[in-house]
Amino acid sequence: MVHERSSERRLSQSGYVGNVGGSTSVPAELTPGSWSALLSPRLAYFAGVARTEHVTRAAQEMQVPQSTLSRALVRLEQDLGVELFARHGRTVSLTPAGRTFLASVERALGEVERAAESVRADADPASGKVAFGFLHTMGSETVPGLIRAFRADHPRVRFSLVQNYGEAMIERLRAGELDLCLTSPVPDAPDLVARRLDEQRLRLVVPDDHRLASRKRVRLSEAAKEAFVTLEPGYGLRRITDDLCQEAGFKPRIAFEGEEAETLRGLVAAGLGVALLPPPAVPRPGVVELTVTGQRAVREIGVAWLDGHPDTPPVAAFKKFLLSRRGRLLPE
């Protein structure tokens, strides 16, 4: 029985959010001969004169020489092949074509203004944004605790949170959609920087009526004939499970592949199989968690970021905070 992978879940500070529907904007062509490249430098001048209907007054407000402004408007009309203004001595008024053009120009300039304010706000040292990814198993206690501790000194910093499996988060890092991520195993790639922060002991989780349930410790080889419930391929914990079983001399027989460690723990309680899992946030009835001996059954947790990617002040502060938690990242 294989569980289908659900769509990735994105969190905001108020909860999970999805993609918002709406019209799709078409990226502007910025090749040398395109309209965008040709007209963009002169659009603000056009809008300023259209607003004041006076070239001299617009030049004063925009703090540019009047001659520069006049030449820009003439060149704009020449490039378009359309008269945008009717001249009346020192004043001007929009032609019908000018009014049509102005409506779109104002929308475009408004978008630029909003985009500039947005990126400046995200980089603000006191109230900027950190795009942070983490594993599903880090979501119940570890990440909330980290954010709470960080915001004690940085109360206005905002977080855009993505909860996913390791390989998907690395893809998001490379796409520039995440600033940092907590993942396991610690990645080793030339385009990434990764630092080991902590490790978790993995336990063999069995039903409370299982033949091994009366034990405190067990060798993993003693579960060689058991059915396993595991995370899906692509998850770091799945790779670690496969490697540990191979080291113990067997290939696990998979009864179920899922996405959530606590789902697997529930399926163990239901008797579907056994599992190698990190400690639960809250003890779960119906299962017994056994210490694995004879091999180093742990998973390393690390933080990763894109090499050479410049940090905004809030990202730099949170990165420094995470690195300061080396060896004490996880709750006791």
Please provide a brief summary of the model.
The protein is built from nine helices and 15 strands.
Shape: elongated
The end-to-end span amounts to 35 Å
Main β-sheet: number of strands, strand sense, barrel status? 7 strands, mixed
Which structural class do you get from the secondary structure elements?
Answer: alpha/beta
Strand order of the largest sheet: 2-1-6-5-7-15-8
Q: Write the H/E string, N to C.
A: EEHHHEEHEHEHEEEEEHEHEEEH
Low-confidence parts lasting 5 or more residues at pLDDT below 50?
1-24
- Number of distinct beta strands: 15
What is the mean pLDDT? 86
Tally of alpha and pi helices: 9
Describe this structure in words.
The structure is a single chain. The two termini are 35 Å apart. The protein has helices at 35-52, 55-62, 66-80, 96-122, 142-151, 166-174, 236-247, 261-269, 313-324; strands at residues 9-12, 15-17, 85-88, 91-94, 129-134, 158-163, 180-183, 192-201, 203-207, 217-219, 227-231, 253-258, 275-277, 287-293, 298-306. The longest helix has 27 residues, at 96-122. It is elongated, with a radius of gyration of 29 Å. Helix 7 links the parallel strand 11 and strand 12. Helix content is 36%, strand content 24%. Helix 1 crosses helix 2 (55-62) and helix 1 (35-52) crosses helix 4 (96-122). With 332 residues, it is α/β, with parallel strands linked by helices. Residues 1-24 have low confidence and may be disordered. It has 9 helices and 15 strands.
